[in-house]
Amino acid sequence: MLFPKLSGKSVGYVNLDTEARLWIKERGLGTEQNPLIDSSICQTMVDDVHKKYGLDYSYGGWFEDRSFLWKGSYLDKTGTYTHLGVDFNAPAFTEIALDFDGEVVLVGDDHPLDGGWGPHVVVKHQNLPLYFIFAHLDRDPQCAIGDILKKDQIFAKVGKAPYNGNWFSHLHLQAIEQSFFDQLIANNAFDSLDGYGLVKDTEANARRFKDPLAYVELE
Question: How far apart are CA 86 and CA 71, in angstroms?
């Protein structure tokens, strides 16, 4: 289970782009300047959405359009609003466990980059040609490069702004197909990897980045 201590808690899917539109309209905030760029305001919005639906935490985001949610962010420069992973909107410091056996191949932290990965861990699936990046973590993950993690082993926690890339508290999980990951490493281009892509690249990105929900358990 991805979040062992949330076992038995209420979880459900939410489309944060849609919910952001409703939340801002209901409060008459306007959209000329996106208030959700402020991580504390975005956290309030997410908490309000959870209360509205009676959820303790939520998930969503694989190949969703985030053009409203992140209007005014760094994504405006590239137009890459298609979310390539899944966000698990869980409380800060929630423990994260691996749902499969795997090897830690990278442990990094790009803080204080605003809008970055923050603390992150990349794990190679032991039995499938896939790598997984766990991002926006709490500082000092409980693992190191070369560690062999077993299924259900806790290795990190959900982070909190500003140290998690200055996002609202959530786990970004992105599944990367092995040949594309190898290509990134061979071209010394891993640092260019982002959690968002262009709509026109959807077909190619769907091959490169699988749906992470197929590889984790929430209940």
Answer: 19
22: tokens are 């409703």
> What pLDDT score does 31 carry?
66
Question: How far apart, in whole angstroms, are the C-alpha atoms of residue 90 and residue 6?
Answer: 9
pTM of the model: 0.97
Q: Are strands 119-125 and 102-109 parallel, antiparallel or unpaired?
A: antiparallel
Cα atoms found within 13 Å of the Cα of residue 212, Cβ hemisphere only: 27
Q: What is the spatial distance between Cα 59 and Cα 125, in angstroms, rounded to a whole number?
A: 22
SS3 label, residue 122: strand
**What rounded mean pLDDT belongs to the chain?**
96
- For residues 182 and 176, give the distance between their C-alpha atoms in angstroms, rounded to a whole number: 10
Is residue 218 helix, strand or coil?
A: coil
d(CA 133, CA 135) in angstroms, rounded, equals: 6
Q: What percent of the chain has pLDDT over 90?
A: 96
CB distance 57 to 50 below 8 Å: yes
Q: What's the token pair of residue 37?
A: 């760029």
Reported residue count of the chain is 219
